[in-house]
UniProtKB/TrEMBL annotation, chain B:
Protein name: Acyl carrier protein
Domain Carrier span(s) in chain numbering: 2-77
Molecular functions per Gene Ontology: acyl binding; acyl carrier activity
Family recorded in the similarity comment: Belongs to the acyl carrier protein (ACP) family.
C-alpha cells in the first residue's frame, strides 16, 4: 500500500532550480553529463602525488585546464590568496556551489530573502590533506608555525560557511557528515528544511578531495580500493562485474539549489525536477560491510518510495550506489526484492564506473544524474560490466547509454557505519 | 628602500594578494590591505620565518602598518 501511505499532500513542494558539479569527468553539469552519456571514463593514474608505493594507484581526479574545455582552473573561481585558507574539498564545494547558484539565477535582495536562503553542503571526510600537512608541522616541533587557517581549512561545515559568506545567504547553515551517504542526506535534509518552512531556498550537496596519500593509504588498509587495474585505469571501476576488486576513489563536488515550488514559479525559475521522496535507515550491523540481503538498503528505498507516494512500478531508473565492491550484489538483491515483478522493466546503472567514488559528493552528483536522466529520457551506462557476477532481470545498462522514458528516478547512497539514504526525484 | 623593507613588501603582496603599489609604508594591513585578524597572525608568522626573528604576541599586536613591521624587524636585526 505504498501509494496510499505517501504523505505528499499538504506539504510544501521542493524543486531543483540550479545545479553545479565538478569531478573526474570535468567541470560543469552539461559537460560532465554529455561525457557520461558518451561512455567516457574519468579514471586515470594518480597524479596528485606519486602513488608508486601504494597498492592502489588509480583515481578519478578533476582535470585541470581551461573552462572552455570543461576543465578546472581554480584561480578563475577562487582568488589565489583565499585558496591557501581552504582545503581542496572546500575548493571543490565552492566551485560546484558557484555554478549551481549562478545557474539558478537566485539573487536574494532583501534581508528577508537572504534569511530565507540557507546552505547545507557536507563532506564524508573533510580536509584530510590539510590535517596531514599540519600534523607534520607539529611533529617537527614547529607548532608555533601552524597556520591560523589550519582549523577552518579542515572543518567540514566550512563549505557551507564559505558559500554563505560569498553570497550573503543568512538562512540555516548546516552540514552533513555520513561518509558516502553524505550527498543524499544533505539534499534530503535540506529539502525537509524547506518543507518545514525554515527556508525557501537551500544550497545543498557534498564535496570531497581525498585523492591524497593518507586517503588512498587508509582505504587501501581497509581493503576497499581496486588494486588490480593499475595499468588499465579505465577498467578499474566495474560495478557488478565478476572481476571487480574494490572501488576507485574520485574527487569533486555536487551542489544543487533547492527551492520551494511556488517561490521558484513566482520568479520564473527553470525547474529541473522535484524532490518527492527521501528515505533513511541504519544497518546496525558492521562498521564497513552491509549485512547479507542488504535489508538496510531495502528499508531506505522503501521509505523513500513511501514518502514520495509512489510504487516501484513508477520508477524508471535507479542510480545505484554500486561502488565496484562485493556489496554491489547485495544492493542488487535488495532492489530486486523491493521491485518484485516490476524489476523487469527497470533500468539501473552505476555511474561510479565512469566517475569513481566521490564519497561524500557521490550522492549529490548522482542525484543530479537522475534528474538529467528524467530531463533527457536517457539513462547513463555502467562501464566495464563485461560479465556480471550475478544474473538479474534488471537492465544494468552495460557499456552504453540508453534512450528510454524516465519520469521518476531513485538514487541510492550507503556509507560506512551502516548508514543508508535514498532519494526519489520526479520531472515537473 | 632597505633589503628588509623589500622583503616585507614581498611577503605582504604574496599573503594578502594585493598589488605592490598599494603596499606603501603607511598602509594598514586591516584598513587598507583587506586583511582580517587571522591574516595578520599568518603575516606575523611569515615575518618570523623569513627574518628568523621572534615577534611576541604583545609586539605583534602593535604591528598595524607596513612601516610598523619594517621598523620592528630592523630594530630586532640591529640589536
Amino acid at each position: 500500500m505504498l501509494q496510499s501511505a505517501g504523505a505528499n499532500s499538504g506539504r510544501r513542494r521542493v524543486v531543483v532550480t540550479g545545479m553545479g558539479m565538478v569531478g573526474p569527468l570535468g567541470l560543469g553539469v552539461e559537460n560532465v553529463w554529455s561525457r557520461l552519456i558518451a561512455g567516457e571514463s574519468g579514471i586515470g593514474r594518480i597524479t596528485h602525488f606519486d602513488p608508486s608505493d601504494l597498492p592502489a594507484q588509480v583515481a578519478g581526479q578533476v582535470p585541470e585546464g581551461p573552462a572552455a574545455e570543461g576543465k578546472l582552473t581554480l584561480s578563475e573561481w577562487i582568488p589565489v590568496k583565499d585558496q591557501r585558507k581552504m582545503d581542496r574539498f572546500i575548493h571543490m564545494g565552492l566551485v560546484a556551489a558557484t555554478e549551481a547558484v549562478e545557474d539558478s539565477g537566485w539573487k536574494p535582495q532583501t534581508e528577508e530573502e537572504k534569511c530565507a536562503t540557507g546552505v547545507m553542503i557536507g563532506s564524508g571526510i573533510g580536509g584530510l590533506q590539510t590535517i596531514y600537512d599540519a600534523s607534520i608541522t607539529v611533529h617537527e616541533g614547529r607548532a608555533k608555525r601552524l597556520s591560523p587557517f589550519f582549523i577552518p581549512s579542515a572543518l567540514i561545515n566550512l563549505v557551507s560557511g564559505h558559500v554563505s559568506i560569498k553570497y550573503g545567504f543568512q538562512g540555516p547553515n548546516h552540514s552533513v557528515v555520513t561518509a558516502c551517504a553524505t550527498g543524499v542526506h544533505a539534499i534530503g535534509d535540506a529539502a525537509r528544511i524547506i518543507m518545514f518552512g525554515d527556508a525557501d531556498v537551500m544550497v545543498a550537496g557534498g564535496a570531497e578531495a581525498t585523492v591524497c596519500p593518507l586517503g588512498i593509504a587508509g582505504f587501501c588498509s581497509a581493503r576497499a580500493l581496486s588494486t588490480g587495474f593499475n595499468e588499465t585505469p579505465g577498467k578499474a571501476s566495474r560495478p557488478w562485474d565478476k572481476d571487480r576488486d574494490g572501488f576507485v576513489m574520485g574527487e569533486g563536488a555536487g551542489v544543487v539549489v533547492l527551492e520551494e515550488y511556488e517561490h521558484a514559479k513566482a520568479r520564473g525559475a527553470k525547474i529541473y525536477a522535484e524532490i518527492v521522496g527521501y528515505g533513511m535507515s541504519g544497518d546496525a550491523y558492521h562498521i564497513t560491510a552491509p549485512a547479507e540481503g542488504h535489508y538496510g538498503a531495502y528499508r531506505a528505498m522503501r521509505s523513500a518510495l513511501k514518502s514520495a507516494g509512489v510504487t516501484p512500478a513508477d520508477i524508471g531508473y535507479v542510480n545505484a550506489h554500486g561502488t565496484s565492491t562485493m556489496a554491489d550484489d547485495l544492493e542488487l538483491e535488495a532492489v530486486e526484492r523491493l521491485f518484485g515483478d516490476d524489476a523487469r522493466k527497470l533500468a539501473m546503472s552505476s555511474t561510479k564506473s565512469a566517475t569513481g567514488h566521490l564519497l561524500g559528493a557521490a550522492g549529490a552528483v548522482e542525484a543530479m544524474f537522475c534528474m538529467l536522466a528524467i530531463r533527457d529520457n536517457v539513462v547513463p551506462p555502467t562501464l566495464n560490466l563485461d560479465n556480471p557476477s550475478r544474473e538479474s532481470v534488471i537492465d544494468r545498462v552495460a557499456h552504453t547509454a540508453q534512450q528510454r522514458p524516465v519520469n521518476i528516478a531513485l538514487s541510492n547512497s550507503f556509507g560506512f557505519g551502516g548508514t543508508n539514504a535514498s532519494l526519489v526525484v520526479r520531472g515537473v | 628602500m632597505s633589503e628588509i623593507a623589500d622583503k616585507v613588501k614581498k611577503i605582504v603582496v604574496e599573503h594578502l594578494g594585493v598589488e605592490e603599489s598599494k603596499v606603501t609604508p603607511e598602509a594598514s594591513f586591516i584598513d587598507d590591505l583587506g586583511a582580517d585578524s587571522l591574516d595578520t597572525v599568518e603575516l606575523v608568522m611569515a615575518f618570523e620565518e623569513a627574518f628568523n626573528v621572534e615577534i611576541p604576541e604583545d609586539a605583534a599586536e602593535k604591528i598595524a602598518t607596513v612601516k610598523d613591521a619594517i621598523d620592528y624587524i630592523e630594530k630586532q636585526k640591529a640589536a
